[in-house]
Amino acid sequence: MIIISLFLTIISCAPGIYLKTEGAKVTEISGMYTLILYGGRYSNDIETIAILDKEDDKYTFEVYAPEFDYKIKQGVPAKEALEEAGKFIRFHHSFWQFRLSRIIDPTGNTIGYELRPLYYPPDFGYTDVLDVLYVIKDSKVTVTISLIPEVRRMLFDDDRPFLLRGIMRRR
User: What's the CA gap between 54 and 1, in Å, rounded?
Assistant: First the structure.
């Protein structure tokens, strides 16, 4: 009995399965969505993304972040969700274009979409500055969003004056 309960405890602590994303087209999106708008907390916030969670499936999305970092709107039609998501991610002065991707469950079904901003490369050294992980356990998808380490270091850990940040140091 002790062995069985130990085994069940170990299984329940398993981290889950990482989900994949792949490119999508705007024309394939239809139905109702829960719109998750992450970021946009201040005028220079590049840690921003929009997630469209399909409402007619068994999965729910949960952002691994404090509640003040994101907004949730339920029951949004596809066209309206895409328009609002597009406006939300475009606010930064370095915005260049967006990338739309489908979020795929372990069986290959689309369970949602992400709309992520891409930025002008000279501003941050990368067009895509986000590291987004989707982990599924049971029917809950936990979303973890952060800046890629190189950009985070450039923006927050650099002790040089603002105008010189991002410029390579001599060693």
Answer: 41
